[in-house]
Amino acid sequence: MAMATKSPESLAEPSIGFDRSERFFESENLVASASENRSAVGVNNGCRRRGVAGKASPPLPPLSRQQLFSTVFRHAAAEAYLITHLTFKLLSFHGVGYRWMIRLFALGCYALLLMPGFVQVGYYYFFSSQVRRSVVYGDQPRNRLDLYLPQHSDGQKPVLIFVTGGAWIIGYKAWGSLLGQQLAERDIMVACLDYRNFPQGTISDMVDDVSQGISYVCSHIAKYGGDPSRIYLMGQSAGAHIAACAIVQQAVKESDGESISWSVSQIKSYFGVSGGYNLLDLVEHFHNRGLYSSTFLSIMEGEKSLRNFSPELMIQEKSARKAVSLLPPIILYHGTADYSIPWNASKDFVDALRCVGVDAELVLYDGKTHTDLFLQDPLRGGKDQLFENVITVIHAGDEEALAKDAIAPPRRRLVPEILLMLAREISPF
């Protein structure tokens, strides 16, 4: 029972709903800053906002508990509205096929099983003083990022820029809140980028947004207490693909002498988790799993554009020989039981990177699915391999940080094991 198909170009234009939500976010940032800037000594390193005449503006009055709760509630409502609006707009474009209905039902059950953990993470996200929500990094819709700040402000902290997944359709910055919280507990600052999803934007918009977000972090993270000389980039699933496109494209621009707002040399390492990097090999696979080729090709701006947004193929172009020499060390992580994006997608990309001289490494996790690495394992608590591997790379050379990591207590369990096992079985990913 497919609905009438609309052109992707018409869907890419923001509707009145987007405008209303974006205007809310602008006012939300101003209101929220009244509460957040109370701890500005540790966050902004003494920086103050300047008025028109160049004088420091007076301190903002603290928000009452009622005002703060109202602000958080309105923020959550606006974000829920935006995501719901995009979902219905996508369905109006794609139509309601039986595979989508089945997967949508499975997704609802999956989220319900993990709800005990989501509630706890959501409380932290909305009420923790260590989270700076919806920092504006650009002038396009959804050009926002969330900052997760370590509790201790003793010196500049390493920074991880994280690009969430979501099949290029349901990606959202808050999906990185669990990772942000847990890394902040290990003295690592995290910036979770939001970006336009389809049908609000297509792949070039997503890559542009992520590149703009990286530029903002590189230029402004110091005022939040981050170390500009220790910035790492990480993406998961579709976010791994978008982030890889962004860094390869930036290397090409830099090698061609184009004007750039950030340099690839500012990224110490790139971590790709459960990503796909050769779109030509994935069209049929995604189609069979419910991301129909008509929709996927609309996201990727047509079949002819697939090569232009396949990092594995981009680095093999003769014109990219100089660019690949600029790429940072790349580490790809993948589970061998991942059916959403097969693990050989990461293996093939690592092989291609090594062939052109890039420092690349592949880490496989036996029996892990697409969501095990990013959701079930972190919600299980204790220690998981991916988390520890990433921290080891970021803290390499910092003996004090490594010593603290060695004695860090295991993370607490957020979801009972029986619910995690059921969620793993019903996961639509």
Polypeptide structure, described:
The protein has 429 residues and is α/β, with parallel strands linked by helices. It has 18 helices and eight strands. The protein has helices at residues 8-12, 16-36, 40-43, 65-94, 98-113, 115-127, 177-184, 203-220, 238-255, 283-288, 293-299, 311-314, 321-324, 344-355, 372-380, 385-394, 399-406, 417-426; strands at 131-136, 144-148, 157-163, 189-193, 226-236, 267-273, 330-335, 360-365. An eight-stranded mixed sheet has the order 1-2-4-3-5-6-7-8, sandwiched between helices. It is globular, with a radius of gyration of 21 Å. The two termini are 23 Å apart. Mean pLDDT is 83; it is low at 1-57.
Keywords:
single chain, 429 residues, alpha/beta, 8-stranded mixed β-sheet, 18 helices
Walk me through the topology.
Blueprint: H1 8-12, H2 16-36, H3 40-43, H4 65-94, H5 98-113, H6 115-127, E1 131-136, E2 144-148, E3 157-163, H7 177-184, E4 189-193, H8 203-220, E5 226-236, H9 238-255, E6 267-273, H10 283-288, H11 293-299, H12 311-314, H13 321-324, E7 330-335, H14 344-355, E8 360-365, H15 372-380, H16 385-394, H17 399-406, H18 417-426
Parallel strand pairs: 3-4, 3-5, 5-6, 6-7, 7-8
Antiparallel strand pairs: 1-2, 2-4
Helix pairs in contact: 2-4, 5-18, 8-9, 15-18
**Helix count, DSSP H or I runs of 4 or more residues:** 18
User: What fraction of residues sit in β-strands?
Assistant: 5-15%
Strand order across the largest sheet: 1-2-4-3-5-6-7-8
Helix content: 40-55%
**Element-by-element helix/strand order:** HHHHHHEEEHEHEHEHHHHEHEHHHH
Average pLDDT score? 83
Gyration radius, rounded: 21 Å
Question: Low-confidence spans: pLDDT under 50, at least 5 residues?
Answer: 1-57
Cα(first) to Cα(last) distance is: 23 Å
- Describe the biggest sheet? 8 strands, mixed
Number of E strands = 8
What gross morphology would you assign?
globular
Structural class category: alpha/beta
